[in-house]
Design brief:
The complex is a heterodimer of chains A (261) and B (389). Chain A is an alpha/beta fold. Chain A has eight helices and eight strands. In chain A, strands 1-2-4-3-5-6-7-8 form an eight-stranded mixed sheet, with helices on both faces. The longest helix of chain A is centred in the last third of the chain and has 18 residues, at 168-185. Chain B has helices at 34-53, 74-84, 97-100, 103-116, 132-136, 143-158, 199-207, 219-236, 256-266, 276-279, 287-294, 310-316, 324-337, 355-373, 384-388, and strands at 2-7, 57-60, 90-95, 121-125, 165-168, 173-177, 191-194, 211-215, 243-247, 249-252, 319-322, 343-349. Chain B has an eight-stranded parallel barrel, surrounded by six helices. Chain B has a two-stranded antiparallel sheet with strand order 5-6. Classes of the chains: A alpha/beta (261), B alpha/beta (389).
Chain lengths: 261, 389
């Protein structure tokens, strides 16, 4: 796969500035990365860039987007991304979100999905499905770090990141991402109590693609989440954890492309 | 120099430490025997009352969900001591306002204790050690911002006497704030704060006249922090007081062998076990420190003092032990190494150190060491304005 040239652009949206990585030409695909931002350089982006204009923004506090003091939750990001969609005059766009990016996509869709043609959520956070004593989304901050990797990856060896190969600038982004994720998602833990009551507003066809071995957001959680979105479909990917698009990319891409076609 | 007695009120009767993954946050309470707990609470309170009789001041703190400290609510212990002691100053170091999230409730509690003790209270505020964010479920980011908003609001509440005011800040919203009682001391009790690395925060503390305290840090780092504090004195003057405080582990004995035995018992505290996720929750330390952590060059703020020999800790000024003259000499050495300090906060009890040994050590300190160090000059004289007055 030839690597698609990425461009980085900064957009000023109200008082907020965000950096957006873009590549490819064609139907707009707003691709909302997970909190670890493992997607930007992955070859599946190059595949999608063959027939899509892939737009990958970084929320304030992630990547190289500055974080305003007043930014405290995922809902705040949704408004900024809706501003971005308007600025880019997106129409008939596919919106795909992974993990935290999936939550952002859902928060956007309940507010305004008029520019969306398809919505794909993978390992998304955002809703509470059980009771007050149920830990719907595994708590990555109270668990031992070695267990967290095993929650996210069917093959935990895939989850090891080689920080020694990164320079200080790259490590600063990693550290900033970790901090910002906690800022927005610590409490309520990985969800917005209001969101589940708003999901009925989504009219865009939606697909939930989930790893069968997702130990962070279980397939049962994914099915329950999908059940809250009118008409949403659910597809499980075998031998994949929380990041099926990275761990079983071929199976993911088949499900993804079939749905957005 | 003022000397303070301190214990974290440990619950040391745990299974062998090698069988535990942590003593903090997730250690099950089936390991806490209420009968034993009752004995320990009363014993530690007795020791504070003895310290008061000996002429020492009384320092308290609180932690949550941990066997290293069963004082889970320091205002309660301070209230007990306010009523049961007569002489010593009482300081909570500190109120975890960044985690507790209700500065006005804290201001009320402190005002009450100040009145009951007839003005013997100093009020510390802390942002809380890393593992505290789990028990409080407070966001590990913006802890300093919450700390300062809480301190400023508490002081405003203590010093407003003309009826209610409203507050709509970044983290706290309150209607009709109108403290009853007001503090016994006017304008308000001396405020203390702690720190271990953030020099700008230390300077901010100095410029507002807060006492700055730091715990169990190597003397070179203590000097760096205290110099930052003193430089801010020089730059800004010193409104309303201030000073510096340092906490080592301290054990005083009649002979070297007993001193070493007591010192080793105290290091139980330094070697307390915890799981890695509790030592550096996301966003607790600045991004550049977490870059070091990703490189494997930072493992928590107390890592350097863990599992070290008592000789190493003595050299660092973290552990002071010996016969009375030896202890006095070590305090003077530390005093000179760090450029002087005003409050010696002595952790004189930790781990399995029993009542008899604890009382023997603190009594010997009060009788034979304190007279040798009490008159070391307060570093506040370094302030140009105060020195001129």
């Amino acid at each position: 796969m030839a690597k698609a040239a990425r461009s980085r652009e900064k957009f000023k949206l109200g008082s907020v500035e965000i950096e957006t990585v873009m590549c490819g030409e064609g139907r707009p695909l707003l691709l909302l990365a997970g909190e670890e931002q493992l997607e930007f350089d992955h070859p599946f982006i190059d595949d999608l860039a063959r027939d899509h204009r892939v737009i990958m923004p970084s929320p304030p506090g992630f990547g190289r987007s500055p974080r305003p003091d007043w930014f405290t939750n995922t809902d705040d990001i949704a408004y900024v991304y809706l501003d971005l969609a308007r600025k880019l005059a997106l129409k008939d766009a596919v919106v795909a979100g992974f993990a935290h990016g999936g939550w952002i996509a859902a928060e956007m869709a309940v507010k305004d999905d008029s520019f969306m043609s398809k919505l794909v959520l993978t390992g998304a956070y955002g809703v509470k499905t059980g009771g007050p004593y149920d830990v719907d989304i595994a708590d990555i901050w109270i668990a031992h770090p070695s267990k967290v990797v095993a929650m996210k990856w069917a093959d935990p060896a895939r989850g090891k990141r080689d920080f020694s190969a990164m320079n200080d600038d790259e490590l600063t982004v990693v550290a900033q991402n970790i901090e910002t994720f906690a800022r927005y998602c610590w409490e309520p833990y990985m969800h917005n109590p209001k969101l589940r009551h708003r999901l009925h507003r989504i009219s865009t066809p939606a697909l939930f693609i989930w790893g069968e071995k997702d130990g962070m957001t279980s397939p049962a959680y994914g099915r329950a989440y999908a059940g809250l979105v009118p008409g949403a479909k659910f597809t499980a990917i075998a031998d994949a954890g929380h990041y099926p698009h990275l761990e079983q990319n071929a199976a993911f891409m088949k499900a993804f492309r079939d749905f957005i076609a | 120099m003022q000397a303070w007695h301190f214990t974290e009120m440990p619950y040391p009767d745990l299974p062998p430490l090698e069988t535990l993954s942590t003593m903090r946050v997730s250690i099950p309470s089936k390991l806490f025997d209420p009968q034993r707990g009752a004995d320990l609470y009363n014993r530690y309170l007795d020791e504070y009352m003895i310290a008061d009789d000996l002429g020492l001041n009384l320092l308290l703190n609180e932690h949550h969900q941990t066997a290293t400290c069963i004082d889970a609510c320091a205002p309660l212990t301070a209230a007990i001591l306010a009523r049961q002691t007569r002489k010593g100053r009482i300081c909570i170091l500190g109120n975890p306002v960044a985690n507790r999230g209700d500065p006005i409730r804290i201001a009320e509690e402190m005002a009450m204790i100040d009145c009951i003790s007839r003005g013997r209270l100093d009020v510390g505020f802390v942002r809380g050690v890393p593992y505290e964010v789990f028990a409080a479920n407070s966001n590990p980011t913006q802890t300093l911002e919450r700390l300062w908003e809480g301190i400023d609001l508490a002081i405003k509440a203590w010093t407003t006497h003309d009826g209610p005011f409203n507050f709509e800040g970044q983290f706290t919203h309150k209607r009709a704030i109108n403290l009853w009682p007001r503090p016994y001391q006017t304008p308000h009790p001396q405020v203390w704060i702690t720190g271990s690395s953030d020099i700008e925060n230390i300077k901010k503390s100095a410029s507002r006249g807060l006492v700055f305290a730091t715990f169990l840090q190597p003397h070179e780092k203590v000097r760096w922090m205290f110099e930052g504090y003193r430089s801010a004195f020089m730059d800004t003057g010193m409104p309303g007081g201030g000073g510096t405080a340092y906490m080592p582990l301290v054990f005083t004995a009649d002979n070297q062998a007993d001193a070493e035995k007591g010192a080793k018992a105290l290091t139980w505290y330094l070697d307390a076990k915890s799981e890695p996720q509790f030592t550096n929750p996301p966003g607790y330390v600045p991004v550049d420190t977490n870059v070091l952590a990703l490189k494997g060059k930072f493992a928590g703020r107390t890592a350097a003092m863990r599992n070290q020999s008592i000789e190493f800790l003595k050299d660092q000024g973290v552990l002071i032990y010996g016969t009375p003259d030896d202890v006095a000499a070590q305090i003077k050495r530390l005093y000179n190494l760090v450029g002087g300090f005003d409050h010696l906060l002595m952790m004189q009890q930790a781990g399995h150190l029993d009542h008899k040994s604890t009382v023997a050590s603190m009594s010997l300190f009060a009788r034979e060491v304190y007279p040798q160090v009490r008159d070391l000059p307060r570093t506040r004289a370094l302030n140009a304005k105060v020195a001129a007055e």
